[in-house]
Design a protein that fits this description.
Length: about 230
């Protein structure tokens, strides 16, 4: 009679073999997963670049910025050269003389000289009685007179002088413009003076005279001043 027996409990060697197989299977599974992840996760080739989109509308211009702070004032420039000295003026009245009296006359009415003949002296009193003055002086006194005016000229010229008693003449003032193509109308000032020698006592007459040399000048405002000066 043969007796057979079996046991459901494995031996120690069997347990170790089974544990080793499990570990190997786990390692293989882990390596396989890593390899698969690498293969599937590797990026593919880069695609073609797309076309550039349409440019957007330019936005409105921004507001102007605030004005900057004004800079410092620059340094003053170097002073220029000194100009030449002007011509010495006419000598004034002698300080030893004293004014005894002075009279004046004025007129602001414009007068054209076109009706008076050329190249002839006229007293200005022919159209303006205020341009002749009479003064009564002491013996040995002197007479100082001055005529001031403004005149307009267009291709014209006039001469002026002061006359005392039709005997003593001042220097002649020549003023105007002529023989100039397309000559403009000029406004020019006039000044004439005279200082006589000592005169006898009595009445003396001072006149302003004009001489129309060319064209038709017009005299505007006019002033005549006459003074009696005592002899030193």
């Amino acid at each position: 009679m043969i007796k057979m027996s079996s046991s459901s409990n494995p031996t120690p060697n069997t347990k170790r073999i089974m544990l080793l197989a499990v570990v190997v299977a786990l390692i293989f599974a882990l390596v396989s997963g890593l390899v698969g992840a690498y293969l599937f996760a590797k990026p593919g080739p880069q695609g073609l670049e797309g076309e550039q989109g349409i440019q957007g509308v330019i936005g409105p211009q921004g507001a102007q910025g605030l004005q900057g702070i004004q800079g410092d004032r620059g340094e003053q420039g170097i002073q220029g050269d000194r100009g030449e000295q002007g011509i010495q003026g006419e000598p004034g009245l002698n300080g030893t003389n004293s004014i005894i009296q002075i009279i004046q006359s004025q007129n602001v009415t414009p007068v054209s000289l076109e009706t008076y003949s050329l190249t002839q002296w006229y007293n200005m009193s022919v159209f303006d009685s205020s341009m002749t003055l009479t003064v009564d002086i002491q013996s040995e006194s002197r007479i100082w007179a001055e005529f001031l005016s403004t005149a307009t000229f267009t291709n014209s010229e006039v001469w002026l002088r002061i006359v005392v008693d039709n005997q003593y003449n001042s220097t002649v003032c020549y003023i105007g413009c002529f023989e100039v193509p397309s000559s403009p109308t000029l406004h020019l000032p006039i000044q004439v003076r005279i200082l006589t020698d000592t005169l006898p006592a009595g009445t003396h007459t001072v006149d302003v005279q004009f001489y129309r040399f060319n064209g038709s000048p017009t005299l505007l405002d006019r002033s005549l001043y006459v003074a009696e000066l005592a002899a030193s």
